Amino acid sequence: MTLxxxxxxxxxxxxLVSGILxxxxxxxxxxxxxxxxxxxxxxxxxxTLNAQFIAVAQxxxxxxxxxVFFLFVIMLINPEHxxxxxxxxxxxxxxxxxxxxxxxLQIAYIILFSKPSEGVSxxxxxxxxxxxxxxxxxxxxxxxxxxxxxxxxxxLSAAIGALVLAKKKFK
Amino acid sequence: MLNNIQEFYNILPLIIIGGLILVSLIIEMYxxxxxxxxxxxxxxxxxxxxxxxxxxxxxxxxxxxxxxxTGGVVNIFWLIFNITAAIVCxxxxxxxxxxxxxxxxxxxxxxxxxxxxxxxxxxKDLIVIFLxxxxxxxxxxxxxxxxxxRSSANEASxxxxxxxxxxxxxxxxGIALIYGKATTTSIDAISLNFSAxxxxxxxxxxxxxxxxxxxxxIAAFPFHMWVPDVxxxxxxxxxxxxxxxxxxxxxxxxxVTFAALFGGPHGHLFTPYLSAIAVFSMxxxxxxxxxxxDIKRMLAYSSIAHAGYMLIGLASGNIDxxxxxxxxLAAYSFMNLAAFGIVSILEGKEETNLDLDSYAGLGTRSPxxxxxxxxIMFALAGIPPFAxxxxxxxxxxxxxxxxxxxLAMVGILSSMxxxxxxxxxxxxMYFKSSETExxxxxxxxxxxxxxxxxxxxxxxxxxxxxxxxxxTKFL
Amino acid sequence: xxxxxIPIFIVMFFATVIALGIxxxxxxxxxQRPNKEKLSTYESGMKPVGTTRERISIKYYLVAMLFIIFDxxxxxxxxxxxxxxxxxxxxxxxxxxxxxxxxxxxxxxYLYAYKKGGFEWD
Lengths: 171, 475, 122
Known about the structure:
The complex is a heterotrimer. Chain A is mainly alpha-helical. Chain A is 82% helix and 0% strand. Chain A has two domains: 3-131, NADH-ubiquinone/plastoquinone oxidoreductase chain 6, subunit NuoJ (Four Helix Bundle (Hemerythrin (Met), subunit A), Up-down Bundle); 132-171. Chain B is mainly alpha-helical. Chain B has a domain at 262-475. Chain B is 76% helix and 1% strand. Chain B has a two-stranded antiparallel ribbon. In chain B, strand 1 and strand 2 form a beta hairpin. The mean pLDDT of chain B is 91. In chain C, 69% of the residues lie in helices and 0% in strands. Chain C has five helices and no strands. The longest helix of chain C has 24 residues, at 6-29. Chain C is flat, with a radius of gyration of 25 Å. The model of chain C has no long low-confidence stretch (mean pLDDT 87). Chains in contact: A-B, A-C, B-C. Chains A and C meet through helix 1, helix 2, helix 3, helix 7 and helix 8 of A and helix 3, helix 4 and helix 5 of C.
């Protein structure tokens, strides 16, 4: 077994177990903490796919910033209300399961039945190079310079919006 | 980056709006009376960009590493967005004071939303479409809930955000599937390879998900449920922006992505889906609008119906249809802005005077406003010689050219239904006596904004050919 | 490629083992004689009042939101910093300008948040 397979098995198992634990917990705070584990192992899986920058971004953004946000938002919600929520509408659970099954079937279809796309290099060296931070920097600042500036404005409008909507004593 | 100075001139509208946002932000930070400066600064900026786009309409080019197209139809869309936003700013000056959200940020967020729309209309890459859509949508979510003390505004903002994020999920999923098969996000490359790709189930699923995501943004039938609540809860002028520029931006992205296929062998691939949602949007919007008693909800359902008419142009899958949609969008933007403008003038403090019955006797109380409103209602109903009639005429002709006569017939049927609720308002204004004798008070800026919009409606109605010629020249 | 990440995996392995080991070893090795008093919630000697899940203030939301936004913006600076010398030699000043515009937008957003009291706890 190569290192890649060993790591894949470890991260995939952690990912799967933490995912199942996340959706089955009653207390949303514990669910959120399992989601952190899940995000972390996903970063490992990205690494085995040679997507190094995405793996780092996953840890910094998802396991870091987004999880802090999740926890704060969970704590903003009234605990008594959220307990009644699922009892009130059990059909929502069926909907969630149906969507999950649909997505699973689709991914299974993609993996089992579709041929790898033409034009994607399956050479390992090229794949490693494509995922590095250097390559991403090169693409971002030459080809994708307009989307890059657009992201700046997207985040600016989000920052203004957050302040306008959530600042307690605005102005 | 840019190869020569001409490319700089071509993307100058984007640069100006981008700079305007930053300048406005600085003014907002350091000026005590930013609420008074920013509307006028925004209006000047929007007007300049709009007129500049029209002047430079002939300079078609593709800039920034095949990410953005300029000139031609793109500039016409930029013109529509900017003029619409300028009119909205003019209407808002007095309205947001009355509404209780007197902040300079209001105008900055309108500017960022316009930047997003402009990116969508000019996009040559799916990533640019997505980012433009997000810049626009996030600004819209904030605008919908601008008055934080009003629970209806909070509800509108949250509902819009949750359903909008859901639709964006569809869109991103669709783009991911398209990329998975096509291995590129460049729209030109995908449309060139469309014949080879269209046999693939995943690719078609991706395109369909993309369409579904945009069906939400343009408020078409199965994804329309947010429209009435959001329009009712958000500030009236902002609802005007959602229903005009927002819808135009959604259609511009659909045109950008699908127009390359029209006229080719795959031009009619999505006609079944598009004509189905067109039929349901038209009939549903027109029939449910009859039952509404709140003017903003009525206009919301009318907006769903109009999305249906415009989708006929897309379903017909030919160049006439695209030209028809662009004309329809321009006409509809001015009609609806004028309608929402008058509603915002008549609206009292704390969401009063929004019932249809509160328009009773307007014909005697304030004949000028009643006259303008009646004219707009005739235009929205599609009665000649106003712009609304020609919008419908062009898309119906396009449908008939593509052997979709039944679709045009459904459109005509739906227009006839919609005449009922538009004219009912005229009847209420002129033939129903009111309990109050209050004159309507309005400021000069509001009435000028409405009059400008009405003038555009009349001009587009009197000379529709010149606008259509301008559009078809670049298609 | 993965070989270069082996040190990180080793650190992760030891971190997991030590964290879990310390938590569970005290549970396994220490003597446990529970009674009702010991198992009750400790609240400075007072009788416990209410649940531990109280609603927190909306102010935390703003902090988290601004953290995400600025964290994301910083993420875009890493690839630029790593590649700057090479790209500058190849493409010239445009690489600098594109980041400069981004940073102006970013810093104005930051300044705006600061001016409006986004970082104040009022």
